[in-house]
Amino acid sequence: MSTYVLTDSWTMTRRELAHWARQPVQVVVQLAFPVMLLLMFGYLVGGGRGVEGDYVDYLVPGMLALTMAFGLEGTMLAVTQDLNKGVIDRFRSMPMANGAVLVGRSVADMLESAVSLLVMTGVALALGWRAHGGAGGFLGALGLLLLFRFAMLWIGIHLAMVAGKPEVVQAVQILVWPVGFLSNAFATPHSMPGWLGTVIEWNPMSHTATAVRDLFGGQGGEPGHVWPAVLWPLALLAVFLPLAVRRFGALNK
Amino acid sequence: MTDAIVAEGLRKRYGDKAALDGLDLRVARGTVHGVLGPNGAGKTTLVRILSTLLRPDAGRVEVAGHDAVAEAQAVRFRIGLLGQHAALDEGLSGRQNLDMFGRLYHLGARHARVRADELLERFGLADTGRKAVKLYSGGMRRRLDLAASLITEPEVLFLDEPTTGLDPRGRTEVWAAVRSLVGGGTTVLLTTQYLEEADQLADRVSVVDLGRIVADGTPDQLKAVIGGDRIDVVLRDAGQLGAAVALLPLPASEVSVDTDRRLLSAPVTDRMAALSGVVRALEEAGIEAEDVALRRPTLDEVFLHLTGDDRVKEAV
Questions:
Q1: What SS3 class is residue A160?
Q2: What 3-state DSSP class applies to B146?
Q3: What is the ipTM of this complex?
Q4: How far apart (Å, rounded) are the C-alpha atoms in residues B314 and B166?
Q5: Could you tell me how many CB contacts below 8 A there are between chain A and chain B?
Q6: A251 interface with B at CB cutoff 8 Å
Q7: Which residues of A are less than 8 Å from B79 in CB distance?
Q8: A11 vs B100: CB contact, 8 Å cut-off?
Q9: pTM for the whole thing?
Q10: How confident is the model at residue B165 (pLDDT cuts 50, 70, 90)?
């Protein structure tokens, strides 16, 4: 059965691509939402607390990291819907490769996030933002962002498997905001009261944002955050990936 | 010839509650087996174990000649499952659903596409094959779900309350589809709350209650369980039902009364004596009847007897 892992995973990825093709408006809305946030924070709210120099340079990496964090909701929602619709039962009653459902979900969500990153950097370029870190720095930054997204993805799958109800998804959709904002996405931790600054510095998303700023060679980047930005997601994956896989396997309990 | 389904001593607990409590079942190849029971009797748990979705806590399960726990993948190649809720991707079209499932049965891209078109044609869905499933009617969804469970022409097909929630037309459509399958040699295990459905489709029926089989046999054998014929008396005035029960030459403890239908019903041993006795007694008391009729018991009555009345259950 394991010989079919690749074909079955591809079939499951195609399923998600077919969803996009059938619902182009939803895809556009999903891609436009973080762009809208970027524009709002860049122009309506304007200027972050404690940020020196050009705010857009500071804001763009923060918004990219925030978009990756928000991806958790989308993953959780999709998995919850599948579990509640009974379509997972059909998959499980068929001789398909065991991991394909989750691999297909991962590949599709990562593809969507990659597209989202490209759209957002495209919009940022149009706004006058520039990456100064060269091609290597740019790709490295995208890599860190996607790694962070990958960790969020498995947290999302795990939460969906544990909670499995649309109401819980709604709660998570709300909670993601304060958690996302308790980071240095919009403002520096130095501008906050002591304890809040500490929380924010500990937020894994802050490490990713700071490392990405560094790799883009722009405002607010500090060297030394690349390792935490690699290790934090890996640590989260080491916890949540096996938990989620085990939960999925335990559906027959 | 071996049995298509063998279950021995199946147990499954959820917390304190035993969903299955030592259930035994054998289903011969090429037959339709009905599993009847009230809500919570363990029907769905049974189907989920037989179709490899759940592991039993104890007991042995063999489906299409393979152990459903140890050789789950081998079983999955040989079964089809129609669950209580449509197991479809609502965001995709009917054709996309069948194509996807065909690929997951490893038919290959080309064959999966051909098979999808065949099945859409066969279930009268060819015209709507491109529409998203969420726009389908309940009956269409059920037919597509059934089509999806037939992609590999399974040896054993599980239908968990296949017509619950369907209108009469949808129900007739599903029944016709099931009958045509059995003609092709498929073994069908069907759970239902509708006794009419079991009566219409099943060669044998098992009545399940509290996680065990409480009776097993052909529909006729089961009807014989609660004795022979029954007499039905429909009165013009429901208010006289009580008086009629007291008065008629029928064993009062076995008379059942349905006020809405102004009906009283009781088992009889001597058909003609009961009929003339009832008619005479009604005339003498001046109670007006709309109808008096003798008939065979329905599976409904068997069902109520077996699952609602402890005394009878123990006797069986």
A1: helix
A2: helix
A3: 0.87
A4: 35
A5: 77
A6: yes
A7: 93
A8: yes
A9: 0.82
A10: confident
- Helical (H) or strand (E) element with B206: strand B204-209
Could you tell me which residue, A224 or A151, shows the higher pLDDT? A151
Q: Give contacts of B96 with chain A, Cβ < 8 Å.
A: 18
Q: What share of chain B has pLDDT > 90, as a percent?
A: 47
Terminal CA-to-CA distance of chain B, rounded, Å? 29
* Average pLDDT of the residues in A130-143: 92
The DSSP element (H or E) to which B170 belongs, if any, is: helix B168-183
Q: Which residues, other chains included, contact A19 with Cβ-Cβ below 8 Å and sequence gap of 6+?
A: B91, B92
Measured CA to CA, the distance from residue B178 to residue B173 in angstroms comes to: 9
Query: How far is A150 from chain B, CA to nearest CA, in Å?
Result: 25
Q: Which residue of A has its CA nearest to B158?
A: A93
CB-based contacts of A16-21 (< 8 A; 24+ apart in sequence): A16/A78, A16/A104, A16/A105, A16/A108, A16/A109, A17/A108, A17/A111, A18/B91, A18/B92, A18/B96, A19/B91, A19/B92, A20/A112
- Residues B86, B87, B93, B94, CA torsion sign: negative
Unique residue bearing structure tokens 């998804």? A169
A153: closest CA among A116, A91, A108, A93? Answer: A108
No. of H helices and E strands in chain B?
Answer: 12, 14
Angle at B42 between CA B41 and CA B43, to 5 degrees: 100
Closest residue on chain A to B73 (Cα): A95
Closest C-alpha to A99, from A199, A213, A248: A248
Contact list in A for residue B54 (CB cut-off 8 A) is 252-253
Instruction: For chain B, say whether A246 makes contact (Cβ under 8 Å).
Output: no
The greatest distance separating any two alpha carbons of chain A, rounded to the nearest whole angstrom, comes to 58
The residue of chain B nearest to residue A3, with distances taken between CA atoms, is B106
Mutant choice from A94, A96, A248, A252 vs B, greatest count of B C-beta within 10 A: A94
Q: Which amino acid is at B183?
A: G
B261-277 average pLDDT score: 85
* Closest residue to A253, CB basis, from B55, B76, B89: B55
